[in-house]
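In the design runs reported in the main text, the only information available to the sequence generator was the tokenized backbone. The following block is the verbatim input for one such run; it is reproduced so that readers can re-run the procedure and compare outputs position by position.
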């Protein structure tokens, strides 16, 4: 989830010293670097880890698959209520009869909420439709009063979103993810460790397949954390151990460090290229547009800051798409990107407007049925001209 909450950044900064959340336990950078989740092993990676660490994941996948198979990656971006686009696109793609089974599905922010359903296939399309068209703002967050703003670390309370995740992510879904993980498929979600200011990639299938008694709770926590816009939504505290110390990491929106996850940065610059990833097809669904639309900005502080940050995020997403596109070209990987079409110019009155999401979902369905994929941003941006 992205941009809309950035209008609240000055307020979040001003109130940061007033929060009365649980006291943070001091720890050293080394303890933070080596922190472990009690009861788990190999379920997460720093997003800026070395290529060797990610290649180890690839080797394990290939061993589980048992035979050489063409790898297909689906990356789902952030975008707040614009996630309705990906939900609709996936449904339309299923209806076309051309949607493949993905080897790897990754999600960031609102894309993280979509990712488990996309990973499990078209039988979960109806669940996605309900998730993005049957809800409103009140099903996502509650605005705090003045007292809450002065004593809490966010503008809103995400208890409704946590409950929505719990309703849709249950033991049955967890078991299904674990079964697919055992076949060598991977479901990945990115959060941002705010203390370290680094992205964290979570292997959700490894969590689901573990024997840890809190695996369902952790699975839900990671999804909520990835969608928790700093300032608008409270961060998610995840308990870890570092040496002999116990403390809680503070995790927020994965989009704070990456708009989407197609390839970790170390693999993008790895000279082994496709040999290091084994990916033959990459699909990126951007829940938004690669460039901000023109808008005359009013001369007030919040609008100027919000527009500037939106511009930065869009530019970062564009650079990320171009980097993955270049990698694919260099290594002979089939690359495809899609995003909200230029013909969709519907307005929304409030964030998570049910009418807006329903209309955007329908737009996504039509784009998915038409398989509106583009092999490059240049070709995509020529659409409709």
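Verbatim output:
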């Amino acid at each position: 989830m992205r941009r809309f909450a950035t209008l609240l950044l000055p307020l979040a900064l001003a109130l940061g010293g007033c929060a009365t959340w649980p006291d943070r336990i001091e720890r050293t950078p080394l303890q933070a670097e080596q922190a472990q989740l009690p009861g788990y092993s190999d379920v997460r990676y720093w997003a800026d880890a070395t290529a060797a660490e990610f290649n180890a994941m690839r080797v394990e996948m290939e061993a589980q698959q048992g035979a050489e198979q063409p790898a297909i990656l689906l990356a789902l971006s952030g975008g707040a209520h614009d996630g309705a686009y990906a939900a609709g696109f996936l449904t339309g793609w299923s209806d076309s009869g051309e949607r493949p089974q993905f080897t790897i599905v990754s999600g960031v922010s609102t894309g993280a909420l979509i990712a488990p359903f996309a990973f499990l296939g078209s039988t979960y399309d109806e669940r996605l439709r309900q998730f993005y068209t049957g809800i409103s703002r009140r099903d996502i967050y509650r605005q705090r009063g003045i007292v809450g703003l002065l004593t809490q670390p966010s503008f809103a309370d995400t208890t409704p979103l946590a409950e929505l995740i719990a309703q849709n992510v249950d033991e049955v879904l967890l078991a299904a993810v674990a079964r697919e993980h055992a076949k060598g498929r991977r479901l990945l979600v990115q959060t941002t460790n705010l203390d370290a200011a680094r992205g964290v990639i979570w292997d959700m299938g490894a969590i689901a397949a573990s024997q840890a008694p809190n695996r369902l709770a952790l699975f839900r926590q990671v999804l909520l954390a990835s969608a928790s816009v700093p300032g608008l939504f409270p961060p998610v505290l995840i308990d870890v151990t570092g040496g002999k110390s116990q403390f809680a990491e503070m995790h927020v929106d994965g989009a704070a460090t990456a708009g989407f996850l197609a390839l970790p940065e170390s693999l993008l610059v790895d000279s082994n290229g496709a040999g290091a990833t084994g990916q033959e097809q990459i699909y990126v669904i951007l829940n938004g547009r690669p460039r901000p639309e023109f808008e005359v900005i009013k001369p007030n502080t919040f609008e100027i800051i919000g527009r500037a940050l939106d511009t930065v995020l869009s530019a970062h997403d564009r650079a990320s798409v171009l980097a993955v596109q270049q990698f694919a070209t260099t290594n002979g990987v089939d690359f495809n990107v899609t995003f909200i079409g230029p013909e969709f110019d519907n307005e929304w009155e409030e964030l998570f407007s049910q009418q807006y999401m329903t209309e955007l979902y329908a737009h996504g369905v039509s784009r998915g049925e038409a398989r509106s994929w583009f092999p490059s941003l240049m070709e995509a941006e020529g659409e409709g001209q």
